[in-house]
Amino acid sequence: MSSTPLLTATGLDKAYGATTALARASFALRAGEVVAIMGPSGSGKSTLLHCLAGIVRPDAGTITYDGRELTTMSDTARSALRRTDFGFVFQFGQLVPELTCVENVALPLRLNGEKRKAAEARAAEWMARLEVDDTAHKRPGEISGGQGQRVAVARALVTAPRVIFADEPTGALDSLNGERVMQLLTDASRDTGAAVVLVTHEARVAAYSDREIVVRDGAVRDAEWAA
Ligand SMILES: Nc1ncnc2c1ncn2[C@@H]1O[C@H](COP(=O)(O)OP(=O)(O)OP(=O)(O)O)[C@@H](O)[C@H]1O
User: Fold this and answer.
1) Rounded to 5 degrees, what angle do the CA atoms 54, 90, 132 make?
2) Which domains, ranges and CATH numbers included, belong to the chain?
3) DSSP 3-state percent helix, strand, coil across the chain (nearest 5)
4) Angle at which helices 116-129 and 145-157 pack, to 10 degrees?
5) Which residues, at least 6 apart from 60, have a Cβ–Cβ distance to it below 8 Å?
6) CA distance linking residue 33 with residue 13, whole number of Å
7) pLDDT by residue (tens digit) across 95-133?
8) Are 159 and 81 in contact (CB under 8 A)?
9) Whole-angstrom Cα distance, residue 208 to residue 113?
10) Which of 23, 43, 104, 152 sits between 20 and 30 A of 214, alpha carbons compared?
């Protein structure tokens, strides 16, 4: 491959007690590409995503992001990196119920020290982009599931991350809403140059990616980066 990967994982092992979640899993992601992680239930997809995002520390193996070794970084340094360089979209319950939607979208900017007005102005731009500007002053409990996921995508994009990690982002949505979320997410990532790592078991969702990899029994089948 011509371009150097932005994020590389090599030989990841992870066990939870007697359960092996990852076994010599390897993965590489180029800047700006959209990759779908597929595979059977329990095969290790979410564990791989969480390791790549610096949320779970693998038992063995290395993860390099933009020249930095994630596995040996301090927890503080990894948290800082997650806030500045990564965005996250999960399946459920990720919005803070007490905050309005615009406050939720602005939250990552506020955590990075931005003033409320500027943060909410930028949040409002992303909400318009994701076609949920009408939910700005509602709370998450007052909007639909599809709107909630689009608010979550706006929140993931608001810090201009280089990588967005999405774990079953359409898993709780009907197919029409799911497709809309995927279209808006991938359009926005292509415009901003953010890479997307997406866990899904739905071929229809994976179809929005540039490339699919398959996890089986904790190992990755990745034709493109195979030695
Ligand atoms: N926190 C945990 N504690 C104990 N076991 C875990 C934990 N997280 C994952 N596992 C186990 O590790 C294996 C891999 O789980 P993982 O969630 O990564 O799979 P998955 O492919 O994402 O599954 P699914 O498609 O069902 O979400 C499974 O056997 C799972 O039960």
Assistant:
1) 125
2) 7-221 (3.40.50.300)
3) 40, 25, 35
4) 120
5) 11, 12, 13
6) 25
7) 999 999 999 999 999 998 999 999 999 999 999 999 999
8) no
9) 34
10) 152
CA-to-CA separations, 9 to 13, 19, 54, 64, 143, in angstroms, rounded = 11, 21, 11, 6, 38
Centre of ligand 1 to C-alpha 15, Å, is 10
**Coil, helix or strand at residue 12:** strand
Q: Residue with the nearest Cα to atom 26 of ligand 1? A: 41
Write the single-letter amino acid at 152. A
**How far is 77 from 72, CA to CA, in rounded Å?**
10
For the chain, give the mean pLDDT. 91
CB atoms within 10 A of CB 183: 11
| ipTM score of complex | 0.95
User: Which pLDDT score is estimated for 226?
Assistant: 52
Is 220's pLDDT higher than 50?
yes
Ligand 1-lining residues (CB < 6 angstroms): 16, 19, 21, 39, 41-47, 201
State yes or no: pLDDT of 37 exceeds 70. Answer: yes
pLDDT value at residue 225: 58
Pocket test for ligand 1, best of 12, 13, 14, 19 (most atoms within 8 A of CB): 19
